[in-house]
Amino acid sequence: MSVSLNEKFYRVIANIPEGRVASYGQVALLAGRPRAARAVGAALRHVPAHLELPCHRVVFSDGSLCKGLIFGGPGIQEQLLKKEGVAFLPNGKVNMRCCLWESSGDFSR
DNA sequence: ACTGTGACTCTAA
DNA sequence: TTTAGAGCCACAG
Hints:
This protein is mostly helical. It has a single domain, classed as Arc Repressor Mutant, subunit A (Orthogonal Bundle). It has five helices and two strands; from the N terminus they run αβααβαα. The chain has helices at 5-14, 24-30, 37-44, 76-84, 96-99, and strands spanning 22-23, 58-59. α2 packs across α3. 31% of the residues are buried. The mean pLDDT is 90. The structure holds a DNA duplex (13 and 13 nucleotides).
């Protein structure tokens, strides 16, 4: 099956469990392109809202969130993550230590 | 085929 | 610790 990497990124993100977060690099890695973190972000930017894609569970490798260029507005992503049980640090970043998604699936194909 | 753009990541200072 | 620069990949025009 030949699908655009872009679509593959969507699949990976769609598989992120609730209360868990993944970095862009993580998504790219699972998609088979460990260096395509930027492509992931660029792709998400074009994601239609009707796909139910949990893009709010995708954060930077350091646990920080996007600067406000998200679906509804600034702070929305943080609110959603907190609501799902994601632990946040006092500095406003996600606790990657405990909430980083440990995927063991095969999204590379 | 080439260039520009982007919600990225890493290393160095 | 924070800031700056370079590298990376996919997509659209």
